[in-house]
Amino acid sequence: MARKQKYTQEFRESAVKLVIAEGRRTEDAAANLGMPANTLAVWVSRARKNLSGGGGAFTPPTEQQMAARVLELEAENKRLRLERDILKKATAFFAKEGDRP
Length: 101
Fold this sequence. Notes:
- The protein has 101 residues and is mostly helical.
- The protein has 2 domains: 7-60, Arc Repressor Mutant, subunit A, CATH 1.10.10; 61-101.
- 71% of the residues lie in helices and 0% in strands.
- The protein has 4 helices and no strands.
- It has helices spanning 9-20, 26-33, 37-52, 63-98.
- It starts with 8 loop residues before the first helix and ends with a helix.
């Protein structure tokens, strides 16, 4: 089973620069860098999206940022489930109250 290659931020930025600034084809740049073309294509797509949206330079999230985001989303998910359960119980309670004379 192949291990997932980790690339430094500097490598990512220089690879994207080859395609965007120097006008090279994604496939050619990826072959020269010894990396999968689809990985570079994703980086370039994100960079173009960031540049067109005024986001500045291409900066993919680090593993720490992604892990922090996952924790944040898990906490939000837990809170929302709790709120949903409370609302379900309140709805059932008030539905029973409405049946009384």
